[in-house]
């Protein structure tokens, strides 16, 4: 599919690491492995805000027979330290992380630490207005010691809510931040426990309750019966809450992977659901990702579904053709920084009038803004 406007608006070289939360904490050079997967919202001024995941990595992670990881320690102001792992005890096949060998569980460590950078854009999302380094969000307690990742922002009533993935040996969990203006964020609490990623809060309430899509992960899934239209594996589930802090999972399934295509062999949430009208039918428009197996990472594409406005477990419409795919032309000018390919990971959507402004991470490297005409959703 061709779009009138489709461009990268932030790349790694646009981030000033002299203003990073990690600056000055240890004697090792770092670089921006990726500035990507931006949460997106519209501010009261009309400008847009991207909350960008900055993955800050060691320039030389391997030295003296060890691979090193960055970790936050200490309450209050905190500090960042380097941990050294003997190379004979790890598997470094994936450039984004390494696997610690031995033991009874699959155990990973990261080659970078992520923090969140607010980037203000023009109302159409095409020009940068300001980069708010003074409002960056970084680890502040032990459950975030390996970083804060992949923000998703929803405006519900007059309050902004942001879910993030917090990473630590304690748990791989979803944490919630709130804001009265979309720029100044307060840490609320952990809201979903271990291995529950891609939590997307609906931009509006249903019967007075907050609703969200969730995506719990695991290494074991039970089979559907032979001939089922569904494929076992990660799915997009639903939950509701009276206060956005305590969540009750919905017993009915949400969006499940289809057996007829390998494009949804793995799937998860993309942008927070927004109220929309498709072909005259109102509902919650949700963009989500499907992953086709390929090499280590896979091929990530963006798809869409329209959910019933009163019962989002009912899927009114869905499209099996991808809405967005990775665009190699966009990343050609930064080809020398590429480390994964075939990845577009959509994380935000706002209404632009006749079109939607869609924000995505491109190649786990940069922030992509695409204007998608509302007529594309048919």
Description:
- Pfam families: Glyco_hydro_130.
- Keywords: Glycosidase, Glycosyltransferase, Hydrolase, Transferase.
- There is one protein chain.
- This protein is mostly beta strands and 378 residues long.
- It has a single domain, classed as Glycosyl hydrolase domain, family 43 (Tachylectin-2, Chain A).
- Helix content is 1%, strand content 48%.
- It has one helix and 27 strands.
- It has one helix at 328-331, and strands at residues 5-10, 30-42, 48-58, 62-63, 66-73, 79-86, 90-91, 97-100, 107-110, 112-121, 128-131, 148-156, 159-167, 172-179, 186-192, 196-201, 210-216, 237-241, 248-249, 266-269, 274-278, 281-292, 299-307, 315-318, 344-351, 355-362, 366-373.
- The strands form seven sheets. Strands 20, 21, 22, 23 and 24 form a five-stranded antiparallel β-sheet that branches. A four-stranded antiparallel β-sheet has the order 1-27-26-25, with no helix packed on it. A four-stranded antiparallel β-sheet has the order 2-3-10-11, with no helix packed on it.
- A hairpin with a 5-residue loop joins strand 5 and strand 6.
- The longest helix has 4 residues, at 328-331.
Q: What CATH first level would be assigned?
A: Mainly Beta
Strand content: over 45%
Q: Indicate the CATH architecture.
A: 5 Propeller
Predict the CATH topology. Tachylectin-2, Chain A
């Amino acid at each position: 599919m061709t779009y009138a406007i489709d461009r990268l608006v932030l790349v790694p070289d646009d981030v000033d690491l002299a203003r990073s939360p990690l600056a000055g904490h240890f004697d090792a050079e770092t670089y921006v492995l990726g500035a990507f997967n931006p949460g997106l919202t519209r501010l009261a001024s009309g400008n847009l805000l991207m909350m960008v995941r900055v993955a800050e990595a060691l320039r030389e992670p391997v030295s003296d027979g060890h691979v090193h990881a960055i970790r936050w320690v200490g309450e209050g102001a905190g500090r960042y330290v380097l941990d050294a792992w003997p190379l004979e005890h790890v598997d470094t096949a994936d450039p984004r992380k390494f696997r610690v060998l031995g033991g009874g569980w699959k155990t990973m460590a990261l080659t970078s630490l992520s923090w969140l950078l607010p980037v203000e854009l023009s109302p159409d999302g095409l020009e940068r207005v300001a980069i708010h380094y003074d409002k960056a969000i970084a680890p502040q307690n032990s459950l975030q010691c390996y970083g804060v990742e992949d923000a998703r922002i929803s405006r519900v009533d007059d309050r902004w809510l942001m879910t993030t993935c917090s990473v630590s040996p304690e748990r791989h969990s979803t944490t919630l931040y709130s804001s009265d203006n979309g720029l100044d964020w307060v840490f609320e609490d952990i809201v979903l426990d271990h291995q529950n990623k891609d939590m997307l809060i609906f931009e509006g309430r249903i019967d007075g309750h907050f609703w969200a899509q969730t995506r719990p992960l695991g290494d074991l899934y039970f089979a559907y019966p032979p001939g089922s239209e569904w494929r076992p594996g990660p799915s997009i589930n639903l939950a509701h809450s009276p206060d956005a802090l305590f969540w009750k999972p919905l017993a009915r399934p949400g969006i499940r992977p289809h057996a007829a295509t390998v494009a949804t062999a793995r799937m998860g949430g993309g942008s927070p659901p927004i109220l929309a009208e498709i072909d005259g039918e109102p509902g919650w428009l949700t963009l989500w990702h499907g992953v086709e197996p390929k090499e280590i990472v896979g091929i990530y594409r963006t798809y869409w579904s329209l959910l019933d406005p009163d019962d989002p477990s009912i899927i009114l419409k869905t499209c099996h053709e991808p809405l967005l795919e990775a665009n190699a032309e966009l990343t050609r000018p930064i080809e020398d920084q590429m480390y994964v390919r075939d990845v577009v990971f959509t994380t935000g959507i706002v209404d632009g009038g006749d079109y939607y402004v869609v924000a995505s991470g491109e190649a786990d490297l940069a922030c992509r803004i695409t204007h998608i005409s509302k007529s594309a959703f048919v």
